From TrEMBL:
This is DUF3060 domain-containing protein. Coiled coil: none annotated. Residues 1-18 form the signal peptide. Keywords: Signal. It comes from Algoriphagus alkaliphilus. It comes from the Bacteria. Residues 119-138 are annotated as: Disordered. Gene3D superfamilies: 2.60.450.20.
Amino acid sequence: MRILLIFCLALLSSGLYAQTVIVNPNGTHSVVHDNGNHKVVVNPDGTHSILVGSDANKTIINHDGTHSQVIDHGNTKVIVNPNGTHTVLISNGKTHQVLVNPSSGTHTLTIKNRGARTITHPDGSVTQINKGKKKARS
């Protein structure tokens, strides 16, 4: 589930070339550093996950060294998890996304509203993501 959350959060921060702070359901914070084709997620425990790629095929390098593949089909993205299961992310316009979890079939809903995002997890917990300001480029 952590891999799915990391992927979802990295995708949500894809429009920035700055930092995004993610408030996790347990109150801890993760930071996403966006460097164009590479995004680095610094987890609350200090571990790092990396999202590499800018085309239809992306790779997530997890903090434990395992890899996940992301296959982009426009509004539908398929994530091949390290254990072989598949997760599907479906986008409906620019404001709503549904993440179908692989083993349980439960759904995670993401709603975008003016730069802030709200993620409602299957257990009812909520994650708030607020974008940082874009840094001026010189």
